[in-house]
Amino acid sequence: MHNKIDRLFSHLWQDYLIITPSAKKVHDLLEGYESKHLGKTSKLVNDHIALRTFNIEKINLDKLAAHFLALGYTEQGQYEFVEKKLRAKHFEHTDDTHPKVFISELIVEDMPFDVQQIILKMTDNISDDAAAQDNFLYSGTHWQVSPQEYDVLAAHSEYAAWMSVWGFRANHFTVSLNHMGHFQSLAQINTLLKSEGFILNSSGGEIKGGPEVLLAQSSTMADKIEVQFTNCKKLVPSCFYEFAQRYKMPTGKLYQGFVAASADKIFESTNI
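^ 2-oxoadipate dioxygenase/decarboxylase, sequence as received from the core. Prediction below:
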């Protein structure tokens, strides 16, 4: 089982790096800093990944979650994002050395009619058993959209626009500050990244949350990658890299959940 989980996350990571070149740079930078200051080889630990989808029966949140449930994960939390028309769940493995998983879905029927039509057209040709395939979680798009359709989606939902060009894949990976030895705060990481020219998500402040909600998060802004639309190429936001610091609950254990108000702002890392 452990090998299967490692293999899945390895596939997701390799797929993510193809369209998020800055993540590799950040990863190498932080690992290099850690190793240099600790005087030994240091490896970053992934706190969680996030996946996106639509609440369409054959590809909904539960269909994506089934892959993780089969690997020993269990559902641990539910979240609503009313303004963004999203809902989400997070999953944890009994062995906490495995990353957590945050899966969200767009509530299609809550979107304007023209947006619904584009999404239904995109997803119509996906076979009913596609989501059950081993590689589905990193299979990308199963459709192609025009730049005009992308613009319509983007006007109403950055999330829908992102899905239209990137489809099924990890939307971000997350460095766990709690497993680092040299860095003691997200502010330290953010300062280093900015000095190296990386752009951070400042929506709701560079650091979202904090000790008072038991979780602090920050992230880079998504890379811009050239995408082939039906009739042209265009630069659009791809994926980003997140950083998380978890705090101890009164029980003495680290908080493992997510904070909806912070996650709401983290979603904006893919804004155009």
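The chain has eight helices and ten strands.
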